[in-house]
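Q: Please design a sequence for this.
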């Protein structure tokens, strides 16, 4: 599941419910207020919820907003948060949960710069550099997030193996680097990527988009992962 929840608990609740209904392995969420992150942790003690602050004082209660990577049904997995190049007024990190024994598996969440393609290009290049070491060690890496960029822009080349220089299969790429609209302004800017070493292009099974109270769609991404 991938969702920019726009600081709304109702959008988080919709994502959690759909994840339960579909037995989703994990969730990647952006614009999650600290209060709501604490509620998630309290209500789901059997999960691993890795939340990291991106901007202080940005929520209506004066607390921080941040990014979360969540592994459902398994508590105590490792949390990772390697830094990405910052943009104005924000701390930017690749927020991940790491789990698995024989094959290390990573679920990572990210929220890239808005209105700054130069910053986004640096950020996706950094994601590529960070995840390269995990992929080179035969790990399975999933990156979901609000990239604030449409598929054919230069800054997305570091993610896409398809017509790019990245090492990821995008869940919704059956018709190329396009796919469903994910934001209220009519663009596709939200994605779920699966590392190509464990998910080939033909193993991507698409996304389903659902409207919530957020101005972004809730994405249910499906793919086969060879472990």
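A: Design:
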């Amino acid at each position: 599941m991938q969702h920019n929840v726009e600081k709304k608990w109702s959008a988080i609740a919709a994502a959690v419910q759909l994840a339960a209904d579909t037995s989703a392995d994990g969730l990647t969420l952006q614009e999650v207020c600290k209060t709501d992150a604490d509620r998630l942790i309290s209500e789901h003690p059997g999960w691993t919820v890795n939340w990291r602050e991106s901007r202080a004082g940005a929520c209506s209660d004066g607390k921080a907003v941040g990014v979360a990577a969540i592994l459902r049904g398994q508590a105590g997995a490792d949390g990772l948060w390697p830094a990405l190049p910052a943009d104005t007024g924000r701390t930017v990190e690749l927020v991940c949960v790491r789990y698995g024994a024989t094959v290390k598996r990573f679920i990572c969440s990210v929220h890239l710069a808005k209105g700054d393609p130069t910053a986004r290009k640096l950020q996706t290049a950094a994601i590529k550099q960070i995840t390269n070491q995990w992929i080179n060690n035969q790990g399975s890496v999933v990156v979901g997030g609000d990239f604030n960029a449409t598929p054919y822009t230069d800054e997305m080349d570091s993610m896409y193996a398809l017509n790019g220089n990245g090492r990821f299969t995008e869940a919704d790429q059956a018709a190329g680097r396009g796919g469903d609209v994910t934001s209220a302004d009519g663009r596709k800017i939200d994605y779920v990527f699966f590392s190509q070493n464990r998910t080939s292009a033909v193993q991507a099974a698409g996304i389903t988009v659902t409207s919530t109270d957020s101005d972004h769609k809730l994405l249910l991404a499906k793919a086969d992962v060879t472990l």
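Q: Thanks. Anything notable?
A: Residues 117-136 form the longest helix (20 residues). The CA atoms of residues 76 and 157 lie 34 Å apart.
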